[in-house]
Specification:
- Two copies of one chain form a homodimer.
- By secondary structure, chain A is of the alpha/beta class.
- Chain A contains 18 helices and 14 strands.
- The first copy, chain A, is globular.
- Chains A, B: It catalyses: L-alanine + 2-oxoglutarate = pyruvate + L-glutamate.
Amino acid sequence: MAVRTVGHNQATMNGLREKVLTLDTMNACVKRVEYAVRGPIVLRALELEQELSQGVKKPFTEVIRANIGDAHAMGQKPITFLRQVLALCVHPDLQNSPDFPEDAKRKARSILQACGGHSLGAYSNSSGIQPIREHVAQYIQRRDGGIPADPNNIFLSTGASDAIVTVLKLLVAGEGRCRTGVLIPIPQYPLYSAALAELDAVQVDYYLDEDRAWALDVAELRRALCQARGHCLPRVLCIINPGNPTGQVQTRECIEAVIRFAFEERLFLMADEVYQDNVYAEGSQFHSFKKVLMEMGPPYSTQQELASFHSISKGYMGECGLRGGYMEVVNMDPAVQQQMQKLVSVRLCPPLPGQVALDVVVSPPEPSDPSFAQFQAEKQEVLAQLAAKAKLTEQVFNEAPGIRCNPVQGAMYSFPRIQLPPRAVRRAKELGQAPDMFFCLRLLEETGICVVPGCGFGQREGTYHFRMTILPAAEKLRPLLEKLSQFHAKFTREYS
Amino acid sequence: MAVRTVGHNQATMNGLREKVLTLDTMNACVKRVEYAVRGPIVLRALELEQELSQGVKKPFTEVIRANIGDAHAMGQKPITFLRQVLALCVHPDLQNSPDFPEDAKRKARSILQACGGHSLGAYSNSSGIQPIREHVAQYIQRRDGGIPADPNNIFLSTGASDAIVTVLKLLVAGEGRCRTGVLIPIPQYPLYSAALAELDAVQVDYYLDEDRAWALDVAELRRALCQARGHCLPRVLCIINPGNPTGQVQTRECIEAVIRFAFEERLFLMADEVYQDNVYAEGSQFHSFKKVLMEMGPPYSTQQELASFHSISKGYMGECGLRGGYMEVVNMDPAVQQQMQKLVSVRLCPPLPGQVALDVVVSPPEPSDPSFAQFQAEKQEVLAQLAAKAKLTEQVFNEAPGIRCNPVQGAMYSFPRIQLPPRAVRRAKELGQAPDMFFCLRLLEETGICVVPGCGFGQREGTYHFRMTILPAAEKLRPLLEKLSQFHAKFTREYS
């Protein structure tokens, strides 16, 4: 008897029918989607963790997941006040507990007051709980030095990814040479490439300038746009500031130039500003696109279309698992805004616990509140630690030959460039792997350190990088960085 | 000077440019999306609530939102144990509180043990927390009389809607006459029509038989399929059981016949079973498609592809706001399943609070646990109330001339047929409204009762219906049903 193999043709030969849904018959756009942050390297990390837990011997005792901006998973503690408010909302009997401060109780009461049946178990409006939208608007107004924000232009979301995909969905249209083109930075956060593949839009790459600390250059935007105009209709410009994976913080001048460019070229602006609280470098400061746009005055302030995105997953709170965020739209056609309202209503509403957490972030305790001091202390502690780790990362990597790391001005990642010996590059190609994927897989197998290769974010041809979070605990980070640098040296020797 | 008007052409004439994103340039598929459950009638209800709160006089004192299955908003209390576990997960300091039972504490500890950094703030695996997937599999196995379920085939989700759209997304392919056709019941839950419009798939309607209590008839499936084959490639059959909005519970024989049909016609089966705990009528019983499929044996059990969906928003818990659910896939091509895994990873993970709530639903307290008695009492109380309200609804409506209501065997809605006088139909057409939309809007304006017209779900040409939830509190429901019946009588007189 023939040995039984699992396989397409074999199955058919054995008398089983083809399945209705196969790789051949499925949605081809979905097949093209790639998402490196949770890709093959992370699946391998999972397997290694399982092997370790089963007692299999490895050259390391734990897998360090430095692949994803997941602060709590790396040991960061939740902000106490945020969790107190959320617990009070989930289980209102706690209003009688002496262990919760008065301001947390008050906030929970006011949130539940705005919920159907005074319960987090009711659906909210599809754009979010109304008073929370108002708090978001007030937060933006404070952040932007008094420039007003309209609660009707705020849409709460299931993390920023959800809102970004919603806006892209509205913008995607046309066929052939009239398909919507979307300019995205390279390196990029791969949500963008994944969403564009799924929506069958045209990805238009503009390169950030590694030699100038990943600065965005309008001349490069213009090059990318001109080249794209031959084969699609570029209508959208995506910006990530502070940068992911690249960590740069854009100057005010740069933002002005980008807005002017978008206006002249008739591009809808999407500003991914989820790391707005994560700015560490001296001299760097976060400027929101909304603020700069408004300060530039007409015609920019009155006509340039903008959607900007924020999240509770990053910043100092790191509440990834709750899935919360918001977007603000500016100068959007009211009829389109109604269409967006309709579209989000099909998914009913963003999760209420995430909305609650967002409310705490945008309307935290005031100086006169009992929780103010602790809230501020916890927040500053997290941000100070991140700033120190950003600096340490840059420093340790730049001491290593063959690794060059731009300053981590903001966000949560370093994206160092690595030299790989030609023999390693050839070996990778033999294995059908990108050279930095090959490097990262070897790194994982030998050290347990899980980082994402540059090929998952995009990079200039012939350059190699990896993205590593700065989130591991301070006492772990230095040895980790050194171990990684040493592995790179060993890898280089091995393939020289 | 000309009076300033807001308008497209006017704007252009005033020297303002066209926006980049307009109704003309936006995604045409999104424009075609409709979602009646949160449509115009609900927006009007919102306005009326605002007017009431501002002291505007109306013929009613409150708006009754009987448009959506939102149990907590209608006053249903959360299940105590579920909220205790969730509060303990959100705020682990509560482990020291004497106010929480030992089994809730134990469950919370075991959930947090499986979370990154032991925090709900960490991302989970994209398919959900592993032990929760295992509990779901055990739950299915118990529910289905011991037929095994594989945790690797379970994907947790952000409510059922999210999972349904994910599977449809995989299935949609082709162009022109080869576009994927998806058979859906009429009347249907409008998530389906909305998702198909957005994905640009072909909606293929099969009609449920109102005269036989909304039974599903295979001859009608065959008719719909044959007719569709002329202009698309039908590859998917969606079933909603218990029915939404129609409330029927399918017999085992019917399910077998549907499975046989799907197998013969090579259709991927999608079974929306979110109301599986909501079965009220004597003689009615829930049979899962998975169980029937497996009991039918080969080739069905080994080859028929199926995805089935469940949610924490319905049942006895009604935790809509937490956004949780799962799907189980059966006989799916492993390569496609990998593609699905990849696709869901782009959105990172379902919200962790919803995962926690799901865990409580699928692995509730056992008879030996301290919370068992209260959990069961609360659950049975909700279900008994719903059963009584289902019966009451049918009874009151059927006493009214011109209203005919099938038994509400399951789910959470009645979908009565209403006679509308020809003059009302003509008047509606003059206003550009569907006749039952006209009726429902008038009902809302005069009584404050918000229900969804049948046109939002689909119905046979020339018939009119509305969907009303059975969720209002018992003491409110009878007067509400009577008020609605009286309004229908008055409306009929007015237009006769």
